[in-house]
Amino acid sequence: MINHKKCGWAGSISEFCNTETTVIVDSCIKFYTLHYNETAEQIKSQIYAWQDSFSYLKGCLANYPYPDDLIIFEYILPRSGLSRPDVIIIQKRDSGRIDLKVIEFKSHPNLQENEKWQLRVYLQKLSYYHSFTHDYVSNIEGILISVHPSWDDSYYVDNEHDLTIVGRYCLLEILKETVSCPNPLSSTVKLNKSSSKELLLQFLDSQYIPSPAIVHSARILFHNRDIPRISTVESSNFYNVLEQVESIIEKAQNDRTHHLVLVHGEPGSGKTFLGLKIAHKDYSQHINPGQAVFLSGNRPLVDVLANLTNDTFVQHLYKFKNEYKPLSNNATQTPYENIFIFDEAQRAWDENKVNHTFNNVSMSEPDIILDIASRVTQQWSVTVALIGQGQEIKGGEEAGLELWANAVRQVSINKQIGYYVHGSPTDLIHFQSNMPANVYLDNSDHLFLNSALRNHDAHQYHKFINSFLEGEFAQAAQYFSLIKDKYLFRWTDSIKAAKSTLTGYASNIKTEDGRFQYGALYSTTSTKPKHFKVFTKTTFYKVPDYVIYHNYRELRGLNSRENNLEAEDFMRWQQHEERYSNCLVYAATEYECQGLELDMALVEWGDDLIYQNNNWQHKPNTYKERDKDAQNPKQLIKNTYRVLLTRGRDATIVFIDDQLLQQLFIRCGVPKLASN
User: Fold this and answer.
1) Mean predicted confidence (pLDDT) in 88-107
2) Hey, how many other C-beta atoms are within 10 angstroms of the C-beta on 212?
């Protein structure tokens, strides 16, 4: 038996059977409260489930013929956001072969599709991204067990999900059988004889490392599949910027040095695609090889990109932070990557926001990322900070580049390492005060993406939106005069006219992929939209069957409590039934659409941002104003509309019933949408 921060309890099966159930439950409670910040009183139902399953397993395993096999409860999968299978059994054989049984308990009789997929995801995460498993495990099998009496003697193989589903009286026989589910990516290396403790530690300390086959597959997918509407690079300095970043990475490899690269760009200028190009390049042939990862806190964007190319090089920022954040005992793990692409770096969380999410971590997100970069085993790193403009829509995201400057200052002093900071003169202003002598600033005019790709026929469009939201209406009028013949932007007080226009354009215009995608958008801080349905906290969605689960990614949105669409739901919003965006029945919020886009967007301007007394006024007592991390709620709401108004690639129609706002658009030269 060993104590380990990655699991609730671990030991041999004989140790498990001979340890009091209360001792094992107490260990799981301590583990749970450490990671989830919940008291034993708050997790009573979980404790009852542990008590029942442990008692059942003790009875079942009393006659198990291999008492030296190992059993692990509540193991946190690497970079999984605290996802954890109920039970893992490591089966050791004299031949040196290692097999795994991954077990999930369910108490109800009607097993759901998402419960089967959940277990399938665990198997895939272990097979493809767990260093111990794809190095040493020959076979891996998933077992879904229902302890409901109606299942007592049941046993069948679910070929669709490649799982075994059993009742409580059949588990022992299944565990004794030879596993018939070969690990598809196993190198089948025989593990040298190790003690139970050594073997457990090897498994529990395993890193998130994609297998070589998955890495190869991800690169092929990226280069051979179209990345929807973010892969256009015409009329921009995109490749100049890419070449500059790649030269900095090569310098870091050659000199074994640490670098922060600030890449600024206008909305829609290709920052995401730049990050993906950097992430998917092969850096392994250098004498100092490297790997890259694209990190984003925008979950819908991450999930959509992971669907397209698998999630080897695209990771959710929260999961990455949770895996490698500094701990009080300094027993921190180190990622295998050393090139970190941080999306929307200007929105990085400040220390207060991080501390509200991760207890006892008094660091900002830039502090955490640069601390991680300083620990890489290759002794060189490049952090590419992709910087947008006016995209901060949550509290705790408002500190901007000052957080990165402070992080460089702290890591160079505390870790005694030199840091090179590359960026445009405007961005480097934030790094010029109180920097230690081992921080070196490199002014570069080749790190600014200077033209919008999203609105490819209207490079001045984002300037028009910015001026309008800043109340600079004369300037906005000048910018609109430059784009009025290149980009369709209209206001309307008729929802019927707006919908008719969208459907009319869709019937006459074809995009390069054969579809014309449009949809409705609204701000979460406004009153619910008058003309569209919204997704509520209790709305559950069926995952659309066309989604390709090439890596059985963790399914989101099946039982989400958050008031937003996840990637599958966003895709469903675009594709199916009344949730299909072109049906114009449901509307998406700034959180669902940020980083994504439509061909045409219909924005319903709400009551949360109005113009009074020659100034923008925001609706009082919105959740953004109540957010204790928010410094400027009005600016966050203005940024919300900046996001909504820049989602349309070719056109945006704004529905407004406020007459003063209508007059503002007229003042800027924006025509009213013609009624059909």
Assistant:
1) 86
2) 12
**Contact present, 27 and 79 (Cβ < 8 Å):** no
Q: Which stretches of 288-353 are assigned E, i.e. beta strand?
A: 292-296, 314-316, 339-342
CB-based contact 224:353 (threshold 8 Å) = no
Task: Please say whether the beta carbons of 261 and 382 come within 8 A.
Answer: yes
Of residues 188, 193, 148, 190, the one with CA closest to residue 167? 148
CB 312, CB 280: distance < 8 Å? no
Helix (H, G, I), strand (E, B) or coil at 162: coil
The answer to whether the beta carbons of residues 374 and 258 sit under 8 Å apart is yes
CB 639 within 8 A of CB 391: yes
At 133 the pLDDT is 86
Per the CB < 8 A criterion, the answer to whether 117 and 161 are in contact is yes
Angle between helices 299-309 and 212-224 (to 10 degrees): 100
Nearest alpha-carbon partner for 257 in 372, 354, 141, 338 = 338
Asked whether the beta carbons of 388 and 265 are under 8 A apart, the reply is: yes
* Domains of the chain with CATH codes: 2-205 (no CATH), 214-449 (3.40.50), 456-668 (3.40.50)
pLDDT bucket at 207, cuts 50 / 70 / 90: confident
**Count of residues making up the chain:** 676
Instruction: Write 188-196 long-range contacts (CB < 8 A, 24+).
Output: 188/138, 189/135, 189/136, 190/95, 190/96, 190/97, 190/136, 191/96, 191/98, 191/136, 192/96, 193/96, 196/11, 196/12, 196/68, 196/70
Is 70 within 8 Å of 87 (Cβ atoms)?
no
Structural contact between residues 82 and 76, judged by C-beta atoms closer than 8 angstroms = yes
Q: Around Cβ 192, how many Cβ atoms within 10 Å?
A: 7
Helix, strand, coil: what percent of the chain each, to 5? 40, 20, 45
Alpha-carbon gap, residue 610 to 469, rounded angstroms:
11
Helix segments in 530-589, DSSP class H: 567-575
**Over the stretch 510-564, which tens digit does the pLDDT of each residue have?**
544 446 778 899 998 888 888 888 865 434 333 333 222 222 223 223 333 333 4
- Contact by Cβ (8 Å): 89, 100: yes
In the block, tokens 């399953």 appear at 53
337-364 in b/e burial notation, b at 16+ Cβ within 10 A?
A: bbbbbbbbbbbbbbbebbbebbeebebb
Residue 328 confidence class, pLDDT cut points 50, 70, 90: very low
Contact indicator for 342, 297 with CB cutoff of 8 Å: no
User: Hunting for tokens 């229902």 — which residue is that?
Assistant: 146
| Burial readout 267-286 (b: 16 or more C-beta within 10 A, e: otherwise) | bbbbbbbbbbbbbbbebeee
Three-class SS state of 450: coil
Enumerate the H helices of 225-266 as residue ranges. 238-255
Of these ranges, 117-121, 128-132, 359-363, 431-435, the one predicted with the greatest mean pLDDT is 431-435
pLDDT for 157 beyond 90 = no
Q: How far is CA 554 from CA 302, 311, 546, 551, in A?
A: 12, 10, 16, 9
Burial of 494: CB neighbours in 10 Å, binned 0-12, 13-18, 19+: middle
